[in-house]
Amino acid sequence: MRHAPQSSKVNFLSVRSFFFFALIVLFGISILYIFQPFIYPLFWAAVIATIFHPVYAYVAKHSKLPSVSSALTLILVVATLFIPLLGISILVVQQSLNLYTIVAQSGYQFSVGDATGWIAQTPLAPYHTMIVDQFQAHAGDIAKNVTSFIIQNFTTITQVSATFIFQFCIMMYSLYYFLKDGERIVQRIVHLSPLGDTYEQLLFTKFISTSRATLKSTLIIGGVQGTLGGLLFFFTGIPAPIVWGIVMIAFSIIPGLGSFVVWFPTALIVLLMGNIQTGIILLIGGSIISMVDNLLRPPLLGRDTQLHPLVVLLSTLGGIFLFGVSGFIIGPVLAALFIAVIDMYDHYYKDELTHNKN
What is the CA radius of gyration of the chain? Predict the structure, then answer.
């Protein structure tokens, strides 16, 4: 008896599933492409929303109106973050212009009378003229480069001010809804994700803790070091102390560097220029400022990041190179999420990995 030929048709359910997920991928890529111009505003809105969510929760507990609570929290964000940043930016640009004018006109000439007498009494006496000339030239170049960088970037921002203001408005608008509807957005993502509540919670926790730790290290530790460094420069008569304070904050973001790379060369230059008292004050004051990082970082950050210092350094530098200013948060966050995924893999396949001897 002849058997009926087996059907060569592909299972219709498989075709439908493949077509359905292909549509999800297609439309997902399309919507990401549409949102691409606003990735950074959305990212910063999400980060600020995670930082200020406890404030929003406190306000919402008393107001009982989510819209009002979100608006009040938004006003607080503007008052505590953006207005101070705007004021500091104006002062930095003003001092940068003044410093650039001084350097351009005078070449950053130091008084070398005392330096000649001091160096002449040391083993460096035969080379004192060369040393003084070289330090004058390099100090002038450094000051010019720093102030030119600040001025050029500020000019770039003002030239594209319409785009900057538009993206800022997008960020604030997104922040309003992230505060108001953030919990529902997270619950929806958790509902749609196939990973499971335990792993999803791990990923969200990593994102929040790493973002919070990075911002705390920047705003608090970097802010304290920059403020103290600026005051130290102000009282010792170093030109443009606010500019150098901002530079110290920028270097404080990068693990392993900190404000040391600003105040230490300055102290050496001042010493070699013959101002021994001011140079010693800069060295002592700078050493105290550098100790702030060791004192504040452990209690402020605790185990928020749980990242190896080398990973923090490389992810911060790589993030800045790839994503610009936003990279100092994006880099460590991506590194933390990657390590979280590796931990999930280790947890899920724990037995197999334990017995994987061959």
Answer: 28
Write out the DSSP string of 240-278: -HHHHHHHHHHHHHSTTTTTHHHHHHHHHHHHHTT-HHH
**Can you tell me the distance from the alpha carbon of 223 to that of 231, in angstroms, rounded to the nearest whole number?**
12
What's the CA gap between 298 and 232, in Å, rounded?
25
Q: Are 285 and 191 in contact (CB under 8 A)?
A: no
Helix ranges restricted to H, 160-239: 161-192, 197-216, 223-235
Task: Quote the tokens at residue 1.
Answer: 């008896």
Please give the C-alpha separations between residue 161 and each of 79, 96, 136, 346, in angstroms, as whole numbers: 21, 20, 37, 48
Tens digits of residue pLDDT in 115-163: 455 555 555 555 555 655 555 555 556 655 656 665 556 555 555 566 7
Cβ(273)–Cβ(134) below 8 Å: no
Indicate whether 95 pLDDT > 50: yes
Distance from C-alpha of 319 to C-alpha of 328, rounded to nearest angstrom: 6
pLDDT score of 173: 92
* Angle at alpha carbon of residue 289, lines to 257 and 261, rounded to 5°: 30
> Residues 99, 243: contact at Cβ < 8 Å?
yes
Contact in structure between 259 and 290 (CB atoms under 8 Å) = yes
Please give the pLDDT value at position 112: 45
Contacts from 195-200 at CB under 8 Å and sequence distance 24+? Answer: 195/344, 199/344
CB 312 within 8 Å of CB 305: yes
